[in-house]
């Protein structure tokens, strides 16, 4: 009786080990390799993170994740409030969700919405301050931005805080400031924005939009040329 129990236990243990080895090989090696191979063969760009490259072939970021374009801290203090680098088109507010400059590095801290209601006093204060900053920063000697010209996406973050797009209206609002800061003609910058404006998906899904990283990458190449 005891010998039969030992044999039965040994057989069960052996069967379990064989199943473990087979499942490890199939699920831990063969399946990941097959999925990776199919993805690389059919969707290499998406499989590698939807990377965007500049004219020199250097990766500057992902098409799926928004970035901010800020000046380095004046005092070297990492806790100093970020100041936007006004040479570049600015994305939607992120409330500190991520930081970046025009280099390929991107410091992702977290993603998420504020979850504040529309009548929340703190949210209203953020929007009011952001609107005043947009008017102030985008007004030039030859072009005055009116508060009524500021679109909603210029003063509110997206649900994730990482939206890589802005509206054509917000991009157009920044054209005069970008042109002045970079010594370019307004019409030249307007044409650049037009080339990077995407239509609705399939012609009817979503809204027209401008990809900020793609636009700024093209702007940097234009300035260098």
Topology, number of strands = 9
Beta-sheet strand percentage? 5-15%
Any idea how many domains? 2
Q: Give the biggest sheet.
A: 3 strands, antiparallel
- Kindly name the structural category: mainly alpha
Distance between the termini: 88 Å
Q: Would you list the SSEs in sequence order as H and E? A: HHEEEEEEHEHHEEH
Helical segment tally? Answer: 6
Strand line-up across the major sheet: 7-9-8
Q: What's the Cα radius of gyration?
A: 25 Å
Q: Can you give the mean pLDDT?
A: 83
The shape, in one word, is elongated
- What portion of residues is helical? 40-55%
* Low-pLDDT segments, ≥5 res: 96-109
Name its key features.
two-stranded antiparallel ribbon, elongated, 45% helix, mainly alpha, three-stranded antiparallel β-sheet, 9 strands
Task: Explain how this protein is built.
The chain has 2 domains: 2-46; 52-224, no CATH class. The model is unreliable at 96-109 (pLDDT under 50). By secondary structure, the chain is mainly α. Helix 4 (168-182) crosses helix 5 (186-195). The protein has 6 helices and 9 strands. The chain has helices spanning 2-42, 44-47, 121-138, 168-182, 186-195, 212-224, and strands at residues 51-53, 59-62, 70-71, 83-84, 98-99, 107-108, 165-166, 197-198, 209-211. A hairpin with a 7-residue loop joins strand 5 (98-99) and strand 6. The strands form 4 sheets. It has a 3-stranded antiparallel beta sheet. Strands 1-2 form a two-stranded antiparallel ribbon.
